[in-house]
Amino acid sequence: QAGPPEEKIKTLDKAGVLHRTKTVDKGKRLRKKHWSASWTVLEGGVLTFFKDSKTSATGGLRQPSKLSTPEYTVELKGASLTWAPKDKSSKKNVLELRSRDGSEYLIQHDSEAIISTWQKAIAQGIQELSAD
Ligand code: I3S
């Protein structure tokens, strides 16, 4: 028997457009950075970067996977998040996310206020999952 509908709705922590690039794939450093603006969703302990930034906010919040293809999904369990050291990028406000499988991503937004809210939300997600 199905529970009440609210149980099936995953909690959305955060969504928005961020600049991101993958720098390491499962331990293998990628030769080139390809920064792109990407619709990004944090929910249920998973951070998903979609292929583009054009998914509509309203539709994207509800069912992003039906509207746009996820390019990268990062499980926050066992991940770590730090501010990227200056040698990783000349851009400002860059976060470095390392996943448990040894992949690394840089995440950036020109607005310090916006990147700070993502930093807090992702760090909190990581912390909550490590408490399990
Ligand atoms: O680590 P790099 O090589 O300085 O990263 C830059 C390159 O990925 C560059 O691409 P091209 O080599 O095609 O120009 C990007 O346009 C830059 O944004 C990268 O540097 P930053 O410092 O922005 O992450």
Polypeptide structure, described:
It comes from Catagonus wagneri. Rho GTPase-activating protein which may be involved in clathrin-mediated endocytosis. GTPase activators for the Rho-type GTPases act by converting them to an inactive GDP-bound state. Has activity toward CDC42 and RAC1. Residues 11-127 form the PH domain. The protein is α+β, with helices and mostly antiparallel strands. It contains four helices and eight strands, in the order αββββααββββα. Strands 1, 2, 3, 4, 5, 6, 7 and 8 form an eight-stranded antiparallel β-sheet that branches. The two termini are 27 Å apart. (1S,3S,4S)-1,3,4-triphospho-MYO-inositol (I3S) is lined by residues 32-33, 35, 89-91.
Instruction: Compute the number of helices.
Output: 4
Sheet having the most strands:
8 strands, antiparallel
* Proportion of residues in β-strands: 35-45%
Mean of residue pLDDT? 86
The rough form would be described as globular
* Hetero compounds: (1S,3S,4S)-1,3,4-triphospho-MYO-inositol
Distance N to C terminus: 27 Å
Order of helices and strands: HEEEEHHEEEEH
Number of strands: 8
Helix content: 25-40%
Structural class determined from secondary elements: alpha+beta
Radius of gyration: 15 Å
**Which residues sit in consecutive blocks of at least 5 with pLDDT less than 50?**
none
